[in-house]
Amino acid sequence: MPPLAVRWKRAGIRIGFVPTMGYLHAGHLSLIQRARLAVGKNGVVVVSIYVNPTQFGPNEDFSKYPRDLERDLKLCSLAGVDVVFTPGDREMYPPWGEATDEPARRDARPTNFSTHVVEETLSQRMEGAARPTHFKGVTTVVAKLLNLVQPDVAVFGQKDFQQAAIIKRMVADLNFPVKIIVAPTLREADGLAMSSRNRYLTGNLRSQATVLWCAIQLARATVKKSKAFPAAKLKAAVKKLIECEPAARLDYVEFFEPDTLLPVSTVTRGTHMALAVFIGKTRLIDNARV
Ligand code: AMP
């Protein structure tokens, strides 16, 4: 990959990059389209597919995260992707994956790897509080991928709002020569944000999962009616709504200022909201401008 990127750079070819964990859906494809729009038909669009072990906590779904490389490659080809980069653990975190019987284990640390990128402010709350090692894994792997692919632009989804904010901060703080584009969240017809993890939603869990979108609608309707509304009261109303679904449990809901991610005590138009909800054993996240 690096020699290819260097050759493109020398030839003045623009590189657009979409990092993913695979099991692609229409949300990912919209990021690919956005990357193509950014680099034009003479540019190259690179998609990476890598389920990064270091961003999963010990009791999370790393080993059962859905994977279907054959299908992903077909979708990338149909979407006009020029290069699909599918590194293994051996390339990313040696010596993980060097023996076939030694897959990356979430409870082990790669012995030849000891440098990390840690964002220290925006990653404190919400996903960072709920998943303490998550963003360290994300920023480190994204920094590695940016160095390998050397893109001019990289596209991230608003679906992971906090992640996108942290990546933008990392790129600004550490002077990565890349423009970060954040593309809108694609949703199913009933409002559920598309996610590879929706595949876990079997039986009636799928219909219960629309409660995240209902919570966003509730917050929007509340603010439309009363202009300014106490965050604590709105959080309580969201919790009550979520708990009407038998398999749903609210992990957190937060109302915050979109640039700083700092919580607000009064919700008004322009406040951002984010929430994480367990539907059965599946943890879903969503966010939107209120
Ligand atoms: P993932 O494969 O889940 O790590 O996601 C890869 C990229 O796709 C991230 O930048 C996500 O924010 C983005 N993404 C995931 N779901 C959606 C969606 N429903 N709409 C738009 N972008 C998404």
Question: Could you give the topology of this structure?
Answer:
Layout: H1 2-10, E1 15-20, H2 26-39, E2 44-49, H3 69-78, E3 83-85, H4 89-92, H5 127-130, H6 134-149, E4 153-157, H7 161-173, E5 179-183, H8 205-208, H9 211-226, E6 229-230, H10 231-242, E7 248-256, E8 266-267, E9 272-279, E10 282-289
Parallel strand pairs: 1-2, 1-4, 2-3, 4-5
Antiparallel strand pairs: 6-8, 7-9, 9-10
Helix pairs in contact: 6-7, 9-10
Describe the structure.
Helix 2 (26-39) links the parallel strand 1 (15-20) and strand 2. This protein is 35% helix and 19% strand. With 290 residues, the chain is α/β, with parallel strands linked by helices. The longest helix has 16 residues, at 134-149. The protein is globular, with a radius of gyration of 20 Å. The chain starts with a helix and ends with a strand. The relative contact order is 0.13. Bound molecules: adenosine monophosphate (AMP). Adenosine monophosphate is lined by residues 20-21, 27-28, 30-31, 156-157, 159-160, 183, 185-186, 193-196.
